[in-house]
Amino acid sequence: TLTWSSSNATGCTASGAWSGSKAVSGSQSTGALSSNSTYTLTCTGAGGSANASATVTVNAPPPPVPTVTLTANPTSVSSGSSSTLTWSSSNATGCTASGAWSGSKAVSGSQSTGALSSNSTYTLTCTGAGGSANAFATVTVQGPGGGAITGLVFNGNDNPYYDSRFHFTGGNLQPMYPATIVFRVNPRPQAGYYTTFFWGPEGDYTGNGFYGAHPYPATTPPDNSTTHNWEFSVSGHDWINDANGHSTSLGYNVWRTQAVRVWDAGNAKIHEFYWDLPDTTKVIRVSVDPSYGPLSGRTNSLTFGNAQFSPISEHCNCTLRGIQLYNAKLSVSDILAEINAPQSTSAGSQNMWYLNLNPTPDDITDKSGRGHHPTWWNTSMKASLWTGP
For residue 78, what pLDDT is reported? Predict the structure, then answer.
């Protein structure tokens, strides 16, 4: 904004980056500028003329932030075999490797991992004038040194005071929205409620600020029900109806690969529970008010194996493994690809929050390289070990 005033003048004339007659005082916007501009004003009166100038400097736009992608092919190998890492970046002048590899890297390229004997996570950080960005890729090793298929066996409601649950809290807590949560679960028969996982407040039940997906009693009274349906629980309600009319009856002692997607659609918070993947037609879909979200003033957690607000009567009575968390709404096709090969998609690689395909009671740490480690609620009440074929 140009502002001017004069004395002993009867009129003024603009030149330089503006033009025309001007009042002896006033103000005016320059309009949008793309280059440095100098504005001159000459004012004239009976005693002669005088002029003044003002220059506006236009700063160059900030440099773009780099982007980087890193993939491994294949993402799972036998012990002693190798995988090929391929990467590319934009707006970067150089890259640095860390994790299972190291050193300076070109801004794009490919490289063999060499023979692998254990699960390995590769990190690539690329830097340019606009800052830095990183990407991750994990290669799992099957066979000696990295190939055991393991899981966590959670107790049931018949042992109500053995509280075997683990949770993500504080800086390791995945944001409530958006999120994609993938897991493999094998439920065993029991009467009453189950909890596979809940995102919600610790402490007393509120009926608000939570969601979870697990089996739900099919008959009343629910505490005594020995039959169950898959359900999505949110906003104090339990939804068991499949969006495409499939029966959601449970089926015990059967492994299910399942995924939950939740996101803010603007006019609603959307929740989807794919309860029998890879069949994407089997889905429970729930919409709630867009204001729905985490409770303030409470400690929130993402808890697996038991309900953080009802730990006596909602044990999982299940085996759980193959846990993959993403802080984004992944597409259904990306979910299926990520189930087959974690971090094999661009969205999966960029948004993975936590990965542990083969957890054990003594190792529930994050294998994605992000460092989002959960903890056992009580280290003397861990789940027990399951070893697969």
Answer: 72
Question: Phi, psi at residue 223, to the nearest 5°?
Answer: -65, -25
Q: Which residues pair with 262 in a beta bridge?
A: 179, 271
* pLDDT tens-digit series, residues 207-231: 899 999 999 999 999 999 999 999 9
pTM: 0.69
Q: What is the mean pLDDT of residues 148-170?
A: 92
Please, are residues 1 and 31 in contact by the beta-carbon 8 Å criterion? no
Name the percent of the chain lying above pLDDT 90: 79
CA geometry: angle at 120 spanning 117 and 124, to 5°?
A: 145
Regarding beta strands 131-142 and 76-78, do their DSSP bridges make them parallel or antiparallel, or are they unpaired? Answer: parallel
> In this structure, what token pair is assigned to residue 5?
């005033």
Please state the three-class secondary structure of the chain as a single string. Answer: CEEEECCCCCEEEEEECCCEEECCEEEECCCCCCCCEEEEEEEEECCEEEEEEEEECCCCCCCCCCEEEEEEECCEEECCCCCEEEEEEECCCEEEEEECCCEEECCCEEEECCCCCCCEEEEEEEEECCEEEEEEEEEEEECCCCCCCEEEECCCCCCCCCCCCEEECHHHCCCCCCEEEEEEEEECCCCCCCCCEEEEECCCCCCCCCEEEEEEECCCCHHHCCCEEEEEEECCEEECCCCCCCCCECCCCCCEEEEEEEEECCCCEEEEEEEEECCCCCEEEEEECCCCCCCCCCCEEEEECCCCCCCCCCCCCEEEEEEEEECCCCCHHHHHHHHHCCCCCHHHHHHEEEEECCCECCECCCCCCCCCCCEECCCCCCCEEEECC
Residues 6 or more apart in contact with residue 277 via CB below 8 angstroms: 256, 257, 258, 259, 335, 336, 339
- Residue 144: its pLDDT value, please? 45
Give tens-digit pLDDT for 134-158. 898 888 877 544 557 899 999 999 8
**pLDDT for residue 145:** 44
